[in-house]
Structures are given as C-alpha cells and as structure tokens.
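Usage

Read records sequentially. Each one opens with the input sequence:
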Amino acid sequence: MASTEIPFYPEQIRSTFRPVTEKPRIAILGVTGFIGRGLPSLFAEEGMAITGISRSQREIRPLIQSWQTPAQLDFTGHHAVINLTGESIDRRWTRENRQLFHESRIGVTQAVVKALRQAPEERRPKVLVNASAVGIYGDRGDEDLMDQAPHGSGYLADLCREWEDAALEAESLGVRVVRLRIGIVLGRDGSAFKKLILVFKSGIGGRLGSGRQWMPWIHVDDLRAAIVHAVLTPSLSGPVNGSAPTPERNRDFTRKLASALHRPALFPVPGFALKLAVGEFGGALLAGQRALPEALLSSGFRFSYPTLESALSDLVS
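and closes with the structure output:
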C-alpha cells in the first residue's frame, strides 16, 4: 500500500488516533493505496479531518499512523472508518497467497470491528465503509445483479462473503455498515489499468476467452466520490455496488480501449491459455458479473464518468 505520490496536505493528517480539532474525523485504513490516497483531499473539501492508517513499512510517511497489531487501532472520537485493505488477487492462488488474501481482508476487518467494540459507546464511530468486491456474485452470465443479489459460488465469492460477514459484526454495535462491492477500478495510477495500457499500446491486446463475460468497471474518481457519499448519506447501508451504471462485455471493453488508444485488438487470449498462465486467477478473469449500482443511484449519487467512453476519454487523453 505504499506510494510515492500522495496528493494530500500534511495538515489534514495527524499521527495520533485522538481527535485534535472539532472537525468530524475520518479514519482511512489503506490511505497510501491506489484508492485511499485520493480520499483525504475530498474529505477536506467537506470540512472533515483525516486519520491516515497504513501497515506499509516501506515508505510510511511521518504523518501517517502505522499499525501492525489490532491493539494499535483506536477509533475513539472518529465519525467514520473506511477500510480499504486487501492484497491484490492478480497472482497465482497458492496456499500462501490465499492466506495473505484472507488475513488482509477478513483478518484486518475483524481487527477493525474489535477496535470499534473497544471504543466508548458515546465516542464510537457511526459509520463503517468496508471494501468488498463484485466477485461475491461469482460467475452470473447475463443476470442483472442489483445490490441485494445473493452471493454466488467459488473461491472469490466465498472470500468476499467472509469479508462482508466480518464487517457486519459492527452492526450489533450500532454502527451503520456499508459493504462496497467494488468492480474493476480504472485510473492512471492503478496497476491493472497500467498493464492494460501497456499491452494495448504494444498492439497485442485482445479479448479474454469468448469475450462475452461482463466487466463491471468504475473510474477511480467516481469510486472515491462514492466512498465520500457513503459516509455522508445516512440512508445508505448494506451492500452497495461500486461500479458504473454501464458495465461492458469484455469484447466491447477491449474494442473501446483499443479504439481510444488507436491500436488494433487482434490477439484474443484463449481461456485455456489464460488459466495455464495465471492459474485460478485466469478463471476469475473469464467470469462475469453484470453488477448495477442501484443503491448509489437511488441515494442521489451521480457519476462523473457513467460510460466507458467518457472514462477512457479522461484516462488516455
């Protein structure tokens, strides 16, 4: 979760978990990550102060709180907690990596809930926005997946279900819990998007497998704005699809990305080759979820980049 480019001002971050101003204070776990590092300035615009929290030991900034054990977490006096932790799954799912995926999601979320429970009731945070993923739905073909759709089957679906179940424990403490089911996040600094751009600029891009699988995507600016919206909207709780209102099939996503880069998309990757290259993760890339952000839209959220064309116009210009 380390970063060398963190666009926030030092005065917005404090090295203590105790509030030092009268502004509502937001704790962000994963503040040095791709999504998290853009949040402090957005909350500052709303008149809120930030406690940045990171487990990274590589490039920890002096004004960000580091933590390694649950005992180091203290959310007393905060209005909300945002938990964005979770190791990337774009690697082989070995036994060691599965343990890493579990601990960085379920283990950290359990630690967050424990810290919420230990905070005095009158000074306990009112909101927990906890990351999850559209992978909770499994491979669902052409089914329209609204926020309340049941979870599917498979390793990723089970991992996400455990992740969300851990977060739900906070509801018994009177905390409003938003389980943000995030799609593919598009942003210039995102590792996945960088890899896509490199492949397509090299002229070797193409659809994955049949290309019929749905890809729920979201521009990183919209995802960050949705997180702020979730904190500020008391009526929003439960599962919330963090994806744009216009999901694309992989073949259409591929064609539009190639067109935006003025490159061909002539090299499809057969499903068996994808699975040989990256194992079970390749199977996840061939699965599809037509996730739709009904809860966000009905709560008044408006996307700045509702279509893939508008997102790509911003990101590849």
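Summary fields computed downstream for this record:
- The longest strand covers residues 127-133.
- The radius of gyration is 19 Å.
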